[in-house]
Amino acid sequence: MSRHGRKGGGAKKGGNRRNENNITYACPLPILLEPTGYKSTKALLGLFGYSSNRIVHPHVEGIFDHASHSVWVKKSDQAMLLWKRGFFGKGNLSRSEPSWLNRQIHQREMQRKGGMTAEEITAKRRELRNQFKLDRARAIAQAAEEAEAAFAERGIIVTETSVVIPSGATWKPSSTPKDRAVEESSEPSLNVTEPIEAEPEEEEEEIKDVEHLQLTLQEAFFLIWTMDCLTVLDSLTNEPLSLQQIWNQFQNSHLPATTFDRTLLQASIPNRFDNPFLINYYVYHHYRSLGWVVKGGIKFCVDYLLYKRGPVFQHAEFAIVVCPVYEDPKDRDSSPFALQNVDPFTWSWLSTINRVNTQVLKTLILCYVTIPALERVQMPSLESPSCLTYYQVRDVIVRRFIPARMRD
Amino acid sequence: MENHVSFPALASLAKTYPQAASSLFATYNDLLYAQRWEDLTVIDLPERKRGALRGCRPNSKDTLFVLPCSMSETVSTSWLSNALKALDEPGGIYLAISTEDSSIVYYRISRGFAKPPL
């Protein structure tokens, strides 16, 4: 929800929303720093460069779902904690934070009061937009007809016509009976002082919350390893997994499975550097440690989006495409994983991605990750995250250059 | 996934096609709970080694077909035309691409050229 470009009456509302957001999303990471000790101790420690703050780690529980390569946080208060402090995860039935239950409850209330829910308001807006498009198409067809007729009669090409082609800014909807009916039905929701009729309420079932917060394996491992605030449970036994088990199983979940039951696969020892989990985790950790909020980028044809503070503040500035590069070409032939973007892009595909992102004002970054050769690096290093030191990353910004326009 | 309330409807197809289980689960839940589709049923599509979904949008009678797939798969035009042939749907189908962070994007796939309605 962007408030960019809204001036006048919207500015005050925008200011309040911004202040609310600054308070709600004040913590950039799940951990909190609690000051302890006396003022004098703090001052003394401060002289030597030590902080007397105590780090408070929240405890969040998640369940590892190997089929979907994700960790699910089911408790809503824990899910909101992870979202508010760093924008980790995404509600699986929502656009950002888990809001499905709230939307259902709100929808029920709105239906009872006869007002419009957010979805209905969106539907109305889409209907208006369709009407605008119809009007515009009709106007364009009429203008073309006139031009054809003028050419046929007088043999001249007419560039100006008498027909006005509506634009998005100037078009006004013509009021149809349907519109008026919808407007009337939405009035009760605006008129707050109108007393609600006391109708005998039916016994409504309580809505069961079927949503969870979904964390990618990269987000989950970041929270476990660097923040120490997530416990991952096995989905079948509900027992917490150790760090070693998590490290192994996160990698093994990417192995091709021939059966739904993955207990055998989960027990194997990881032995490949080109595991998608390792490559993606390296990129995720790289940008998170530089302070960016990293989210998925499927809506813009890319792998990741980088936000300066978070999705609620500003649109993402950068779009990342991960391009794995094999140090040893033989490793690629023996790979059980179908890694994407290993081959160089075709020019048409690169242009497509660049155009899509330029239109939404994002800068495209190609992130080349070098996968270490199996021959060079010993296998035991894969037993722990220390193998990540063998990877390298190079960022390349891609911008379309238009000589005529980019003189400055 | 197995403990989720919507899993029993998908259990047999999830076990038959384990690689496609997560995209089927994610798409089924999105259509059923978030998009509120009606008459949602699961179809077995052995030609594409996965399950597909059939249902109606809320307040509409047209039956639509949705084919789930995941971001890590490679989808070619022949893959899509096989799927279109198998589902035998003249109006086209929706391809639902699911990701690890639970985002789903839907693309409308038709046979041949299809001009936008407006």
Automatic annotation (TrEMBL), chain A:
One of its GO terms (cellular component) is tRNA-intron endonuclease complex. Pfam families: tRNA_int_endo (PF01974). InterPro entries: tRNA_endonuc-like_dom_sf, tRNA_intron_Endo_cat-like_sf, tRNA_intron_Endonuc_cat-like, tRNA_splic, tRNA_splic_SEN2. GO terms for molecular function: nucleic acid binding; tRNA-intron lyase activity. Residues 277-369 form the tRNA intron endonuclease catalytic domain. GO terms for biological process: tRNA-type intron splice site recognition and cleavage. Residues 1-20, 168-203 are annotated as: Disordered. Residues 1-16 have a biased composition (Basic residues). Its EC number is 4.6.1.16. Keywords: Lyase, tRNA processing. Constitutes one of the two catalytic subunit of the tRNA-splicing endonuclease complex, a complex responsible for identification and cleavage of the splice sites in pre-tRNA. It cleaves pre-tRNA at the 5'- and 3'-splice sites to release the intron. The products are an intron and two tRNA half-molecules bearing 2',3'-cyclic phosphate and 5'-OH termini. There are no conserved sequences at the splice sites, but the intron is invariably located at the same site in the gene, placing the splice sites an invariant distance from the constant structural features of the tRNA body. This is tRNA-splicing endonuclease subunit Sen2. It comes from Schizopora paradoxa.
TrEMBL record, chain B:
GO terms for cellular component: nucleus. GO terms for biological process: tRNA splicing, via endonucleolytic cleavage and ligation. InterPro entries: tRNA-endonuc_su_Sen15, tRNA_endonuc-like_dom_sf, tRNA_intron_Endo_cat-like_sf. GO terms for molecular function: nucleic acid binding. Pfam families: Sen15. Signal peptide: none annotated. Gene3D superfamilies: 3.40.1350.10. Residues 27-116 form the tRNA-splicing endonuclease subunit Sen15 domain. Keywords: tRNA processing. Belongs to the SEN15 family. This is tRNA-splicing endonuclease subunit Sen15 domain-containing protein. It comes from Schizopora paradoxa.
